[in-house]
């Protein structure tokens, strides 16, 4: 099917400044992988700021995924449900096999991803993400099973010669999120783009995507990554605009997101 090339926009700059410029109710899916300093008070305060923005700019049918740490996940859950009246959908566990070991305690081998929606009317494209059935039963769906809420994916350093970013997320996680919670042509926002995983997968899957990243050195890494899109999926349009001057429309909104 012929679709217009997705709009992929990277803004090198501060999410505190850029995110408020995203138009109200314009985004279908937010993938939030913020930096965590370890100062929980500060991290939770920052997340409140991100949640203000997320709720404002999500469409009513929109979905938010946030990568969290074990210590603050319960606080973020309560904030999203009680303060922001977002609807809880899933607490996803990303299980991986590598990582630093603990000598007095169990080594950490997972990260939590919270999934909340803005309303009861949201995308959930189950048929796009089915996995092979584990056993043969007459009641099984022949098209495959729901993948469940424990996702096993290797950390990217197993797949890349050199890690692009210390916190780089597996493309397969982002692919599953995007396929589940958006449709081709939808608008995705990744306010902490890092090495550009979301931008790359969104491009490959034909979704528009806007990313913010404060580190200028990530710009070239992201641009290279998008130019060698290797997901071998249906859409593979090599197209990205790097916005350096954060041009806004007459309403003061970021120009490229006015889709
Ligand atoms: C956890 S990493 C994101 C990793 C990304 N998901 C990936 O797969 O590569 C968080 C990123 O946010 C960036 N960052 C930190 N503070 C920021 C801010 N105020 N505005 C925009 N980006 C910021 C960091 O430089 C870092 O690259």
What do you see in this structure?
With 259 residues, the chain is of the alpha/beta class. The chain has a single domain (8-236), classed as 3-Layer(aba) Sandwich (Rossmann fold), CATH 3.40.50. The chain is built from 6 helices and 9 strands, in the order E-H-E-H-E-H-E-E-E-H-E-H-E-H-E. The chain has helices spanning 15-18, 40-57, 73-83, 171-181, 197-204, 218-227, and strands at 8-12, 27-32, 58-68, 87-95, 110-117, 150-152, 187-190, 208-213, 241-243. It has a 9-stranded mixed beta sheet with strand order 6-4-5-3-2-7-8-1-9, sandwiched between helices. Helix 2 links the parallel strand 2 (27-32) and strand 3. Helix 4 crosses helix 5. The longest helix is centred in the first third of the chain and has 18 residues, at 40-57. The chain starts with 7 loop residues before the first strand and ends in a 16-residue tail after the last strand. Residues 230-239 have low confidence and may be disordered. The site of S-adenosylmethionine has 17 residues, from helix 1 and strand 8.
**Spatial strand order of the main sheet:** 6-4-5-3-2-7-8-1-9
Number of strands: 9
Shape: globular
Helix content: 10-25%
The CATH fourth-level homologous superfamily: Vaccinia Virus protein VP39
Q: In terms of quaternary structure, what is this?
A: single chain
Overall structural domain count: 1
Task: Provide the CATH architecture.
Answer: 3-Layer(aba) Sandwich
């Amino acid at each position: 099917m012929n679709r217009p090339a997705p709009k992929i926009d990277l803004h090198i700059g501060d999410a505190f400044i850029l995110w408020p410029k995203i138009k109200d109710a314009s985004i279908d899916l937010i993938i939030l992988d913020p930096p965590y300093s370890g100062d929980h008070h500060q991290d939770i305060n920052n997340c409140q700021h991100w949640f203000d923005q997320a709720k404002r700019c999500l469409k009513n049918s929109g979905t938010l995924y946030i990568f969290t740490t074990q210590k603050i996940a319960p606080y973020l859950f309560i904030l999203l449900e009680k303060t922001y009246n977002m609807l809880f959908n899933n607490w996803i566990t990303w299980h991986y096999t590598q990582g630093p070991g603990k000598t007095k305690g169990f080594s950490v081998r997972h990260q939590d991803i919270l999934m909340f929606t803005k309303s009861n009317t949201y995308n959930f494209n189950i048929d796009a993400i089915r996995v092979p059935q584990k056993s043969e039963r007459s009641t099984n769906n022949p098209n495959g099973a729901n993948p469940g809420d424990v996702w096993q994916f290797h950390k990217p350093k197993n797949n890349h010669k050199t890690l692009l970013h210390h916190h780089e997320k597996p493309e397969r996680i982002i692919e599953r999120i995007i396929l589940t919670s958006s449709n081709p042509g939808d608008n995705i926002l990744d306010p902490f783009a890092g090495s550009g995983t979301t931008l790359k997968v969104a491009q490959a899957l034909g979704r528009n995507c806007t990313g913010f990243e404060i580190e200028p050195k990530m710009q070239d890494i992201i641009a290279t990554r998008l130019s060698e899109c290797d997901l071998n999926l249906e859409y593979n349009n090599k197209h990205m605009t790097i916005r350096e001057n954060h041009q806004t429309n007459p309403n003061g909104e970021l120009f490229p997101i006015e889709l």
